[in-house]
C-alpha cells in the first residue's frame, strides 16, 4: 500500500530511518508499507523455503526468506543510499555471493518468489514484476494462495519476462535455475 503523496523521491537512506519492526519497501522512489502476512501466507512461505533450502544444502546459492532487504540499483546512483528501489521479496535466491553484504542484497537476486495477499496484488503483478524484469531477475514466481495457482516468469535473452507458465496444486514445478529441483506444489498448498 503506497503511503506518501509527496513529490520527493524516497531512497534507501529513507528506508534506513523507518522504525524497527515495520516493513517498508520503496519502489520507483515511492514508499509502501507492508501489512503483516496472514498465517496461510507464512505457511506457504515456510514450505517453499524448506523445499528450496533442502535442495541448496551444500550448493553455492542461498535462499533468503523475508524480511530480507534487496536493493535494486538502476546504475545512475552515486552511492548505495541513493537507490530508489528497495524491496523485501517473500523469497530471494542469490547465487552471486558478491551481492550479499551486511545490509542484505545489492543487485538482482537470481530468483524471486512473491506470495500474493489481497493488499499486494497490484504491487506484485505490476510494480514488482516490472522492477524485477528491469533488474534482471532470472525467474519470478507469483504464488496465489486462494486460487492455489503459481505463475512462473523466466527472463529471456531480450531482457523481458516470458509469458507466464501456470501451475496448480496438482503440479510440481521445475526451477529453471537448477536442473534437478522440482517444487511439490501439492505440499505447498496443503499448508492451508
Short description:
The protein is α+β, with helices and mostly antiparallel strands.
Task: Explain this structure.
With 192 residues, the protein is of the alpha+beta class. It has one domain (37-189): tt1808, chain A (Alpha-Beta Complex), CATH 3.90.1570.10. Helix content is 22%, strand content 28%. It has a 6-stranded mixed sheet, with helices on both faces. It has a 4-stranded mixed sheet with strand order 5-4-8-7, with no helix packed on it. It has a two-stranded antiparallel ribbon with strand order 1-2. β7 (100-101) and β8 form a beta hairpin. The two termini are 25 Å apart. The mean pLDDT is 93.
Strand content: 25-35%
Spatial gap, N to C terminus: 25 Å
In DSSP terms (H or I, runs of 4 or more residues), the helix count works out at: 4
Return Rg in Å: 16 Å
* Helix content, binned percent: 10-25%
What's the main sheet like? 6 strands, mixed
Report the CATH superfamily. tt1808, chain A
CATH topology: tt1808, chain A
Amino acid at each position: 500500500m503506497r503511503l506518501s503523496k509527496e513529490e520527493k523521491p524516497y531512497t534507501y537512506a529513507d528506508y534506513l530511518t523507518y522504525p524497527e519492526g515495520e516493513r517498508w519497501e520503496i519502489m520507483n522512489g515511492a514508499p509502501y508499507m507492508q501489512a503483516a502476512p496472514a498465517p496461510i501466507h507464512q505457511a506457504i512461505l515456510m514450505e517453499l523455503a524448506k523445499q528450496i533450502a533442502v535442495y541448496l544444502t551444500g550448493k553455492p546459492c542461498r535462499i533468503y526468506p523475508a524480511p530480507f532487504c534487496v536493493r535494486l540499483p538502476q546504475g545512475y546512483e552515486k552511492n548505495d543510499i541513493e537507490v530508489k528501489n528497495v524491496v523485501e521479496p517473500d523469497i530471494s535466491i542469490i547465487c552471486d555471493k558478491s551481492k550479499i553484504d551486511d545490509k542484505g542484497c545489492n543487485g538482482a537476486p537470481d530468483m524471486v518468489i512473491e506470495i500474493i495477499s489481497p493488499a499486494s496484488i497490484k504491487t506484485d503483478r505490476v510494480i514488482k514484476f516490472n522492477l524485477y524484469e528491469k533488474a534482471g531477475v532470472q525467474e519470478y514466481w507469483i504464488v496465489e494462495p486462494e486460487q492455489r495457482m503459481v505463475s512462473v516468469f523466466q527472463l529471456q535473452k531480450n531482457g523481458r519476462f516470458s509469458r507466464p507458465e501456470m501451475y496448480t496444486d496438482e503440479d510440481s514445478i521445475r526451477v529453471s535455475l537448477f536442473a534437478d529441483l522440482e517444487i511439490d506444489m501439492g505440499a505447498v498448498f496443503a499448508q492451508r
